[in-house]
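Sequence, please.
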């Protein structure tokens, strides 16, 4: 993404949020747009596809705290109208500075470096921009004159796993519809049997420099659209663009213990790069379906099991399920409702090869409407058992009358 894009595009408007929106609101807005505009839900809908790309581009910047601050700083700087043509020369006049002149040739993708004064905007150093304006830097001398390989965009998708799949880990095929290199022309845009030729105007650099008094600016070559080459006979499949939207299937390994809301990064599995640049990354947002029996707390699984009054009083052997084989836990005599029992190693697998535990909470079920022999037995039980330990309460009641 170029620095000019950062200045011209309102990423907040694209996502439908305010400039002060917190990160969770930005994430929520993007995920809604991504679901509604995803190519799988809008096949052959070019407008939806473009909006989907724009939303992904906006989220890529606004979801990164560093990028977002740089983007906000940059737009605030230029919206203040501080830059005028000739601002670097004493006595210079002229109208409003044209940002198009400023950013022509700054296409991003440069390697970040330097000290604190060299702040990065869209992949181009802030100091690089001003050195080009005020020192007369040409199209071929500095970072602004290089149109090297461009890294592809990151891609984000969402996958829903069953509870057991998330706990144990699984490998699933994932189908994506994303831009990719055309298989017919292998990305060069030329009809099979032909090859692009070197652009005679820019000699393959993709940039044309122009001098305006003390200033020197570079801009993409109009003959080759900044690519450095000209396609005389266009590929019938991609119509000379070198790229098409295609469906691809990849196998994604989800590690054991992956949690709901976790974001998995697959390096180099995003959109292909431009001019031989590296591919972007694929980010998979994980959602986990809740289980009807089990819950999860970190690496431990949780389970609530009802027991009878007799089991709580007398004790019992309790057979409970796990995600593997059932286990038997001993309920000690006199167990109160809410007591937790532990089955070690029956929880979520850890990276070290161990596993969390299964935490079983027992709930004593009090029967209602007891009649007949059961009622008589309870009444006899009440006579034979000690009081419930309300001596202090009874003493206070006697004292207060």
């Amino acid at each position: 993404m170029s620095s000019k894009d950062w200045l011209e595009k309102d990423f907040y408007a694209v996502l439908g949020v305010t400039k002060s929106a917190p990160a969770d609101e930005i994430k929520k807005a993007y995920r809604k747009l991504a679901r509604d505009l995803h190519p799988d839900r809008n096949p052959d809908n070019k407008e939806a596809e473009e909006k989907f790309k724009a939303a992904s581009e906006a989220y890529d910047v606004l979801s990164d705290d560093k990028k977002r601050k740089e983007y906000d700083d940059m737009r605030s700087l230029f919206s203040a109208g501080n830059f005028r043509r000739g601002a670097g020369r004493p006595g210079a006049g002229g109208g409003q500075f044209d940002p198009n002149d400023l950013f022509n040739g700054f296409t991003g993708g440069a390697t970040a470096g330097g000290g604190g004064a060299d702040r990065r905007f869209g992949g181009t150093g802030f100091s690089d921009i001003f050195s080009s304006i005020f020192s007369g830097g040409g199209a071929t001398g500095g970072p602004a004159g290089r149109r090297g390989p461009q890294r592809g965009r990151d891609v984000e998708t969402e996958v829903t796993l069953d509870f057991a799949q998330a706990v144990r880990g699984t490998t699933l095929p994932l189908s994506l519809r994303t831009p990719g290199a055309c298989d017919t022309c292998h990305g060069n845009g030329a009809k099979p049997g032909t090859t692009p030729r070197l652009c005679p105007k820019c000699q393959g650099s993709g940039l044309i420099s122009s001098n305006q008094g003390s200033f020197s600016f570079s801009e993409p070559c109009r003959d080759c659209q900044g690519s450095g080459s000209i396609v005389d006979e266009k590929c019938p499949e991609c119509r000379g663009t070198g790229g098409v939207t295609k469906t691809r299937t990849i196998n994604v390994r989800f590690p054991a213990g992956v949690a709901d809301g976790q974001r998995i990064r697959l390096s180099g599995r995003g959109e292909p790069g431009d001019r031989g640049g590296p591919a972007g990354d694929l980010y998979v947002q994980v959602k986990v379906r809740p289980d009807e029996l089990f819950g999860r707390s970190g690496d431990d699984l949780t389970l609530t099991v009802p027991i009878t009054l007799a089991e709580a009083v007398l004790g019992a052997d309790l057979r409970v399920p796990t995600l593997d084989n059932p286990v038997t836990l001993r309920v000690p005599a006199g167990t109160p409702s809410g007591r937790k029992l532990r089955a070690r190693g029956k929880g979520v697998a850890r990276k070290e090869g161990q596993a969390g535990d299964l935490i079983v909470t027992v709930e004593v079920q009090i029967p209602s409407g007891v009649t007949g022999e059961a009622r008589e037995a309870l009444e006899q039980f009440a006579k034979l058992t000690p009081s419930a330990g309300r001596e202090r309460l009874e003493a206070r009641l006697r004292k207060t009358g």
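The two ends are 82 Å apart (CA to CA).
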